[in-house]
TrEMBL record, chains A, B:
Function: Decarboxylates branched-chain and aromatic alpha-keto acids to aldehydes.
Gene Ontology annotations of biological process type: aromatic amino acid family catabolic process to alcohol via Ehrlich pathway
Keywords tagged on the record: Decarboxylase, Lyase, Magnesium, Metal-binding, Pyruvate, Thiamine pyrophosphate
GO cellular component: cytosol
Family: Belongs to the TPP enzyme family.
Species this protein is from: Crocosphaera subtropica (strain ATCC 51142 / BH68)
Cofactor(s), names only, from the UniProt record: a metal cation; thiamine diphosphate; Mg(2+)
Keyword Oxidoreductase recorded: no
Protein name per Swiss-Prot or TrEMBL: Alpha-keto-acid decarboxylase
Sequence ranges assigned to domain Thiamine pyrophosphate enzyme TPP-binding in this UniProt record: 380-510
Amino acid sequence: MENNKSIGNYLIERLLQLGVNHVFGVPGDFVLGFNKLLEKSELEFINTCDEQGAGFAADAYARLRGLGVVCVTYCVGGLKIANTTAQCFAEKSPVVVISGSPGVNERTKNPLLHHKVKEFDTQYKVFQEITVASTVLDNPDTAYSEIERVLTAALRYKRPVYIEIPRDMVNVTLGADNQPSSNNSSSNPDALQEALEEAVNLINQAQHPVILAGVEIHRFKLQESLLKLVEKTNLPVAETLLGKSVINEMHPNNLGIYEGAMGKEFTRKYVEESDCVIALGTFLSDVNLGIFTAKLNPQSFIDVNSEKTSIHFHNYEDISLVDFLNGLLNADLKHRQVDLPSRFLLPTNFSVKPGEKITVQRLFERLNLFISNDMIVIADVGDALFAGADLVVHQKSRFLSPAYYASLGFAVPASIGAQMANSTLRPLVLVGDGAFQMTGMELSTIVRYGLNPIIIVLNNLGYGTERPMQDGKFNDILLWNYSQLPTIFNAGKGFDIRTEDELELGLEKSQTYTEGFCILDVHLDPQDSSLALKRLTKALREKV
Amino acid sequence: MENNKSIGNYLIERLLQLGVNHVFGVPGDFVLGFNKLLEKSELEFINTCDEQGAGFAADAYARLRGLGVVCVTYCVGGLKIANTTAQCFAEKSPVVVISGSPGVNERTKNPLLHHKVKEFDTQYKVFQEITVASTVLDNPDTAYSEIERVLTAALRYKRPVYIEIPRDMVNVTLGADNQPSSNNSSSNPDALQEALEEAVNLINQAQHPVILAGVEIHRFKLQESLLKLVEKTNLPVAETLLGKSVINEMHPNNLGIYEGAMGKEFTRKYVEESDCVIALGTFLSDVNLGIFTAKLNPQSFIDVNSEKTSIHFHNYEDISLVDFLNGLLNADLKHRQVDLPSRFLLPTNFSVKPGEKITVQRLFERLNLFISNDMIVIADVGDALFAGADLVVHQKSRFLSPAYYASLGFAVPASIGAQMANSTLRPLVLVGDGAFQMTGMELSTIVRYGLNPIIIVLNNLGYGTERPMQDGKFNDILLWNYSQLPTIFNAGKGFDIRTEDELELGLEKSQTYTEGFCILDVHLDPQDSSLALKRLTKALREKV
């Protein structure tokens, strides 16, 4: 490291080294100095309309790139992304929150500076609750090691971290404290060996073992290892909703999404009747488990993720998911003959019924054929997610959604982050009208940076997922003319869709119009819902 | 109190008793039960598009009504309003945050319920940092006293509070613990007497005393007392920016806004040269003080607000602002002859120059004449606020703006809260394009509830206030066709304004069209700015 580097420039250099090329945010006076440094650097600053949009975009970017960055001003910027950062925590998305703040020299005598809430460290305290590591770079002598400590935590735990830079520290030269930190996250070898031996025995003895693959396979970039394990053993693989598409959904061993009563009956039975479920990198959250309609027997459960390893009713300490999976790859596991119904997940043909009112089910049947190899599906919360879960995605990890934390408004801004992370992908955004009204105007950012997602608005005049639970006026929302939004931005194309042939036309034109965004306003019956949501409602009713 | 009341219904009853008629929010599954109770009650639930909009609306409502309420779901709703709640804390706006949450019975064994971040109390901990009181109503035996404790704190400190209701507690009957709490906020009589005597002597001995009135005059509803004091003594009154219009701006003793170099020279000189400044309910924050360009001499300063009382360099404990102001009203204060330039604040005539490109200065000169008695001016952050400060507002407290915390995006949603709080007012919203792009689509809520603000978009293609500090691409924003927004909602009227005669026409038509919102897209030169911002920039340059 050169010794004359400023704190701000060093942070930028480290982010570039870690594969980050874009920073999402909104400027503000306490962060303008850092914004100026960014402008001079190779990191591109992507202005969103609101900080919330930047937070969601950085989350999506992190899911694809392995690290994302959102850069905001003090409190009025930072506190606006408390929610998106919380989502990153809950769903393990390693986002670095960089916030400018009042200079160290401005803080003496505790003046009432604008943007201040209670104390100067109020924002810092809030972020301590929703990140795995946080720091205020108020000392050039420790800035180097603090940056390293915090970035290391983001990479190790795949969770958000917080870096606050007082504005008078941005251009201060780093101190000499620059010994490299040690990043030792390997397992206890004895515990690992014992756990592997036990697991391998159980798997080999089982009649119908099955792998249940979760989102950490993606976060820790273990997709290739998982694929090798599947090909070595020929075991079938189900995915959790949050982990959707960690293995190619066209792969013959892919059983589809396991999500209790919400998922398909075949997948549910296969997993629940298995005598050895090998859960790798899953979170057993309520949404993943079909709102607790799952029936998994702990006596046939091997559960390994970055936070814990347990087999049946006992736990092992200090075992990393990476090491465990590599251990399985090197172990003496049987190659099996498994008799799966052939290609049961493949979509069937779709023949348009002209003039027929479009329904949720028919929409998703059609979309299943529309998805191409260069698309990434991004589903917002609600039926966009539940129905989206049944789509067959072609490549691994081509499906993004906040399937656990479930914050509405993710999908449109996430499409910005996703396309910035991988410009060869065209996002297919599935978003309810309620979620769209929260963050959909980030279309502006999409136009500004020349992106071209296809946005399907599931327009059912309200919060459709809530209606079966408890309905009232509070679930209604106003009708917008979504297809007219291109006139606001002088860009993009809009389609108003009520029938199957209008859908067909809209999809065809979206495929050929690649210069900008396409928005398809799909008018659905407020009482209509996907098969998945109907399955869930039925199961919950049976429980009552 | 009846003994068979549920926790949810009791909370609703207390809010109604305290003068609240509207609750702003977005529903979500953990709060649906409470939403259902609200629907059956006399409290009207106002759905906004995003929780951020609800937070700002409730803030505005609280500023006008004395108490506001925002109601959201757990984490994905609550954490979205961390920022708006922080603003309420910083600017003393008593908003009750009500959040649904997972049921007490759902929390056993710490499952991964959706919307959960780290622990079940993560959201509660975050709100402890940004409210004056907070509670989780997880026990029917203490729910009564907890509700009282928290609401009392909101009213006493004029700051936000947090009430979380686990969803299985909403319909649980309150326990018997219902002794009324004591609310004793009166002053120490000896300290009060000594401070009053000292202050009265100083005021009577001074040659040119002046009152500096702040926002707490409004929050504690002391406008009438202040007016009486002015009429009893004939003292001139300056206001802080945050306290703008706590006294009728047409009053002959009103000196206008004192804000250091940012304010008008006459007001600045009058206050800074005074030998006795009586600051009542002011916060001496940086924005109020013209980013610290104010030159106030502590040796001639009497400073009384709800948090402290100091005269010159010594402090008194336990003196309430209300008691002090009442004390002054009853004290033997001189009635003075004060020679103020007559009606120096009154706007002059405005003659339209047809075809002339509109400028910030001319726009505000024209708006000064446009404001009528039934209007409330709501200014967003930026030049909307700085220029807006020079407007002459007709009635007391008819000017709302986040002048201290300065969170962009306040004005449009605030207009919803303001008009719900007082349906006889028509909001005149002054908002920059940057702020509008954050929350402007709450126009949807405006349409849904039949409100009719006039919205002036100061369209200068970016964050104009930041350009003089540090300019770059990051200060640019995309051009929207704001005047086309009525086509999205099938409601409202839009006007595209580039010249003085187009402005004239737009204002005229807005005055007569009262059925819905009017949006005036005023195209300004990106380098143009108000006189106030120019004064500030000049002063800051002199400091460098």
